[in-house]
Amino acid sequence: MKKETEDGVIFREPYFNSKAKTITHPDMINILTSEAEEEILNKIADWISEGSNWVIDQILDHYLNIINYQPLRGGSYLELPKELRNSKKGLNNLKNEDNKCFLWCLVIKLNPQKVHPERITLKDKEFAKN
Predict the structure, then answer these.
(1) In 3-state terms, what secondary structure has residue 31?
(2) I want to staple 36 with a disulfide (CB 3.0 to 4.6 A). Which of 6, 9, 18, 92 is the partner?
(3) CB proximity list for 91: less than 8 A, separation 6 or greater
(4) 107 exposed, middle or buried (CB, 10 Å; 0-12, 13-18, 19+)?
């Protein structure tokens, strides 16, 4: 927002932010908040250098967004959306009850099945033992 007073003084309300940071351990909090602060201060310095005699009069608001981070993990079978369930398009979602998804992907790649490629057969389990 930009405002000009009667005596020609221009007031602007710029917004400055930093990139999102991922904190996976409590020891990282101080380091990453310092990095975020430095990013914002650099953006403010760049903004001030754009105009002639820009002065920061006051900071109107300051906030920190915190979101719980849940990293993706491998696991057992998850059903795909309907539009992705066509194995003829090259996507096979193997039905397994263990956490060996990567193993089964390799086995199916080496021993492709024409009928029900999403199923893990006894033949596949024997092949995986070798």
Answers:
(1) helix
(2) 18
(3) 80, 84
(4) buried
Q: Which residue is associated with the tokens 């990453």?
A: 32
Q: Does residue 74 register a pLDDT over 70?
A: no
Query: Domain containing 61: what range?
Result: 1-71
Total tally of structural domains belonging to the chain: 2
Paired tokens of 99: 């956490």
Rounded Cα distance between 43 and 34, Å, is 14
To which residue do tokens 């090259």 refer?
90
Q: Taking a C-beta distance cutoff of 8 angstroms, is the pair 96, 77 a contact?
A: yes
User: What global pTM score does this model have?
Assistant: 0.51
- How many whole angstroms from its chain centre is CA 33? 18
